[in-house]
Design goal:
Strand 13 and strand 14 (373-385) form a beta hairpin. The relative contact order is 0.05. By secondary structure, this protein is an alpha+beta fold. The strands form 6 sheets. It has a 6-stranded antiparallel sheet, with helices on one face. 36% of the residues lie in helices and 29% in strands. Helix 1 (3-25) runs antiparallel to helix 2, helix 19 runs parallel beside helix 22 (670-709) and helix 20 packs antiparallel against helix 22 (670-709).
Length: 753
């Protein structure tokens, strides 16, 4: 129970005691009727009086509504009737009365029983009743049902803590900047980034932290975000020791309950390493402080006979009124409700007045004097007398912060759900509890319910599970963090997925470990690019030892097939009509037959269309592609379900085809096609260079043979007259300088022998 509620109950206690005193002094019917109205109107509260032994002497309608027994059933019965069996055994009813008698009051925060045997969480107090002379008359107990509110507040705190811990592990700069461009929140990563404590950044202006030049450059973008626009861009972010790092920066407007932007969330991700090597998992921290406090409750009393509206101090404060401001339904309540909610609230109240169902509604108010907009939760019930509605009483509660916190939690949950990283939570026993959409997609799971069937270790390849259980989890428990490169397994395909895995403990508000969280990065793309790079290096090295063009083509085919995990690859020359291909040899995986020999293109469908123009033929599935689906049998017979034909062009004409085959359907990704084209072009260039070099050597040899066969003395000289070649048997010295050089590019001379 909040302090405001306790104070209100104490005030109600004093009022009741004063009323009892007045009734003793004045036995007239009017005060007694007023006392009965007060006692009977508080239907949201159980008000019970007992004698000194704890037997019920009075039982108001609120007690009947909350506990289920009527006054006739309970008067004379002990209050232990609605205590739980275990509390009765423990002696709590007696302990409560003894504490109230000794100290003046006793808190009642525990489970109680209703007439139907169900339990509810009660919140209230027990206080002694005394005569004007100070003699003990018994006790007054006031309580209310807080079951739903207690469960809701606990769940909200749990969700907030879990989400806060998860985002706390993300290594991005996350801050909140208000409309005055002042940092109101910075996460711990700011300390690492700038190399100084967060206290030197928090509550400072942006220009003081990032410098005047960067501030002026960012100012127009921040202004757009404060106007309500989501902003994302790449730019240099000041770093510690005067350096800067290329970063991805986002400005996300934060909207208040009324929809206005009161500041911006800033997310800065370091992308320098990602742009350079796409190597390291980027971690991000996010601690968005969502304050959820249970607000005090105000009480109102609307006299339907006189039209008088009575508000307590708390209700007045929620509507921004002073103690002296007059209140009425038309003059204070309706004008105080936000214009957009006014008609709806009025309809709800009017419908509830006179109804036995009451009402429960939320609406916004704008304080008359302070102008503050608040969200209130209001409840009300009609009090009937002799079948006539005479009063409408109820409570109002400020839920502004709770609603704002829920909206922030939803935004935070959306941020986690939209992340491209694998983000998950597991309980202390290792059972998965949460996995975002990107994570489920990475490991081939269709739903969160499916993910919750597995333990943490189940997500990994068998060879990595011991590392997780014996190294990662113990390290997370003992040191608070573990990271390393491991492999997930895809539950749908069984394929291994290389990842950079992080794991950290999730703690509750008291610091106790309640489970584990992870923010994990998929390394598949990086590993693929590394394999392509290594394959190109290997290809270049192996080309050095090739002595024939066919050998060069075979090396290229083998490198492609091994790197991409294919069944067969080869190189074949084609005739001028592009009707046949002659395959001298091909590379095949173990157990796959060779297709070396002569083949007709037309026997295998439209697998040559576009080759003459230099376009490759790419078919992921020969049974579905229209070029081969009409008769895929010949291809399937030689173990081809997916294929690529890459033309090798010389002087604008196709001279050969480099082909790739696989027995499975293949997804020919853009990066794989680029790798294939790269190998094909390097193969073509290497073959062309090899042939050019062979042609040059052949020409030189023919020239030498010709020169040796003629009877003249023949030599060749540089423009300066120095000889660089002469026929065998020529009497001229190699270092002799020819006379009469005209400064040309060189000369070939001869003379009769």
């Amino acid at each position: 129970m909040s302090g405001a509620e306790i104070e209100r109950l104490r005030r109600r206690e004093r009022e009741l005691e004063a009323e009892v005193a007045r009734l003793r002094d004045d036995r007239s019917s009017s005060p007694a009727g007023h006392y009965a109205a007060i006692f009977g109107s508080a239907v949201d509260f159980a008000i019970i009086t007992t004698d000194r032994n704890g037997r019920v002497t009075a039982w108001n309608p609120g007690a009947e509504r909350i506990l289920g027994w009527s006054a006739g059933e309970m008067v004379g019965q002990p209050t232990s009737t609605f205590f739980t069996p275990e509390d009765r055994v423990a002696g709590w009813p007696e302990t409560e009365m003894r504490c109230a008698a000794e100290t003046g009051r006793a808190n009642d925060e525990r489970w109680h029983l209703r007439k139907d045997g169900t339990r509810f969480w009660a919140s209230g107090e027990l206080m002694p009743l005394r005569s004007p002379e100070g003699a003990s008359l018994g006790f007054l107990k006031i309580l209310r049902d807080r079951t739903e509110a207690t469960a809701s507040e606990g769940e909200t705190r749990r969700v907030r803590d879990e989400l806060q811990v998860v985002t706390d592990a993300l290594p991005v700069l996350i801050s909140f900047i208000d409309r005055d461009y002042v940092y109101r929140f910075v996460n711990r990563y700011y300390e690492t980034w700038f190399g100084r404590p967060a206290s030197e950044i928090l509550d400072r202006r942006v220009r003081e932290v990032v410098g005047e030049a960067v501030y002026q450059a960012r100012l127009p973008l921040m202004a757009r975000a404060l106007a309500g626009e989501d902003i994302a861009f790449d730019g240099l972010m000041p770093y510690r020791d005067g350096a800067s790092r290329q970063s991805e920066i986002r400005y996300i407007p934060r909207r208040a309950v009324d929809g206005t932007v009161d500041g911006i969330f800033v997310m800065v991700t370091d992308i320098a390493e990602r742009q350079a090597a796409q190597a390291d998992l980027q971690e991000a921290e996010d601690r968005l402080r969502l304050a959820l406090e249970g607000a005090g409750t105000g009480i109102y009393d609307y006299d339907l006979v006189t039209g008088m509206l009575t508000w307590d101090a708390r209700t007045r404060a929620l509507f921004g009124l002073s103690d002296d401001d007059p209140v009425s339904y038309e003059g204070a309540f309706l004008p105080g409700v936000h214009p957009d909610d006014r008609e709806r609230a009025d309809r709800a109240v009017q419908a509830a007045i006179g109804s036995r169902d009451g009402f429960d509604i939320e609406y916004r108010v704008v304080g008359r004097h302070d102008g503050v907009e608040r969200v209130l939760a209001a409840r009300g019930n009609t009090v009937f007398r002799d079948g006539r509605p005479v009063r409408f009483v109820g409570t109002v509660r400020d839920i502004t912060e709770a609603r704002a916190a829920e909206a922030s939690a939803r935004r935070l949950a959306a941020l986690v759900e939209q992340s491209s990283d694998f983000i998950g939570l597991a309980g202390l026993g290792g059972k998965a509890e949460f996995l975002n959409e990107a994570g489920r997609r990475l490991v081939g799971l269709a739903s969160l319910e499916e993910a919750r069937r597995y333990d943490v270790a189940d997500f990994f390849e068998p060879g990595d599970r011991s590392t997780v259980l014996e190294e990662a989890l113990p390290a997370a428990r003992e040191s608070g963090f573990w990271e390393g490169d491991l492999s997930f397994r895809n539950f749908s395909t069984g394929a291994a997925v290389p990842v950079h895995y992080t794991i950290f403990p999730v703690r509750d508000a008291h610091g106790a470990v309640t489970g584990y969280g992870t923010v994990t990065r998929d390394l598949t793309e990086r590993r693929r690019q590394e394999s392509f790079r290594d394959a190109l290096i290997t290809f270049g090295d192996r080309l050095q030892g090739c002595r024939r063009t066919a050998e060069m083509a075979a090396v290229g085919a083998e490198i492609m097939a091994r790197t991409l995990g294919l069944d067969r690859a080869g190189y074949g020359t084609v005739d001028e009509a592009l009707e046949r291909i002659e395959i001298e040899r091909d590379w095949t995986a173990p157990g796959v037959a060779s297709v070396a020999g002569r083949h007709r293109f037309d026997d295998y469908g439209e697998v040559r269309a576009g080759l003459e123009e230099g376009r490759e033929i790419v078919i992921p599935d020969v049974t579905l592609d229209p070029r081969t689906a009409g008769n895929p049998g010949p291809l399937l017979d030689i173990g081809v379900r997916a294929l690529i034909n890459v033309p090798v062009m010389e002087h604008g004409r196709i001279v050969a085809v480099l082909f790739l085959h696989d027995r499975q359907v293949r997804d020919w990704r853009t990066d794989k096609l680029a790798f294939i084209r790269d190998i094909a072009e390097r193969t073509r260039a290497a073959i062309e260079r090899f042939r050019a070099e062979a042609s040059r050597r052949e020409s030189e040899e023919q020239f030498r043979v010709f020169a040796q066969a003629i009877p003249n003395q023949v030599w060749a000289a540089h423009p300066d007259g120095s000889l660089y070649w002469f026929m065998s048997g020529c009497p001229l010295s190699r270092k002799r300088v020819l006379s009469g050089s005209d400064g040309g590019s060189g000369a070939v001379m001869s003379q009769a022998s």
